[in-house]
Amino acid sequence: MRYFLINKPFGTLSQFTREAPEHRTLADLYDFPPGVYPVGRLDRDSEGLLLLTDDKRLNHRLLDPSYGHARTYWVQVEGKVTEEAIRALAAGPVIRIKGKEHHSRPVGVERIAPALPPRDPPIRVRQQIPDTWLALTLREGKNRQVRRMCAAVGHPVLRLLRYAIEDLTLADLAGQHVREVSVTYLLPRLKIK
């Protein structure tokens, strides 16, 4: 079995197949062996930690909602986030997914000030509107959920980066964009016995 950690750049699809000639995919980042696929997804406009493997049991375990693995996202949102908005996020706001209401599970929320390099391309900046960085820890993974949750409390997302899956973080990449790791390295960080 093979296990790869990557720091997915903005604008890259979490797949190997191009949907249009100009799309960047995971195949543009590294020469991954056949049979290795991402565990979960990050949308094209999101960055950060992604795990790729050919281990189908691990893939199933991490994607099975009954296990509820924690995923932490660093999110730059538009506006100054109030305590009321933080409480609404923490409670799990109601969002719409495929036309249906979904009551999000409670979320860990804290204000942060991460030291990140600028995004390429840069985010839009509006001089009269401040922004806020938050760390959101979710135990479910609906399509574009972080973006929908932040919008539901009045703070559109400017930049979104997955920082961690359980105790596995971007720091585990040791400054690399792609790093192959062993299962003995991976499982304790993912809290899997």
Describe this structure in words.
- It is built from four helices and eleven strands; from the N terminus they run βββαβαββββαβββα.
- The strands form two sheets. Strands 1, 2, 3, 4, 7, 8, 9, 10 and 11 form a nine-stranded mixed β-sheet that branches. A two-stranded antiparallel sheet has the order 5-6.
- The protein has two domains: 1-67 and 169-193, Alpha-Beta Plaits (2-Layer Sandwich); 70-165, Alpha-Beta Plaits.
- It has 193 residues and is α+β, with helices and mostly antiparallel strands.
- The chain is 17% helix and 30% strand.
- It has helices at residues 56-63, 83-91, 145-152, 183-189, and strands at 3-8, 37-38, 47-53, 71-78, 94-97, 100-103, 108-111, 131-138, 157-165, 168-169, 178-181.
- GO terms for molecular function: catalytic activity, acting on RNA; pseudouridine synthase activity; RNA binding.
Describe the secondary structure blueprint for this structure.
Layout: E1 3-8, E2 37-38, E3 47-53, H1 56-63, E4 71-78, H2 83-91, E5 94-97, E6 100-103, E7 108-111, E8 131-138, H3 145-152, E9 157-165, E10 168-169, E11 178-181, H4 183-189
Parallel strand pairs: 3-9
Antiparallel strand pairs: 1-3, 1-11, 2-3, 4-8, 4-9, 5-6, 7-8, 9-10
Salient structural properties:
single chain, 193 residues, alpha+beta, Alpha-Beta Plaits, 2 domains, nine-stranded mixed β-sheet, two-stranded antiparallel sheet, 4 helices
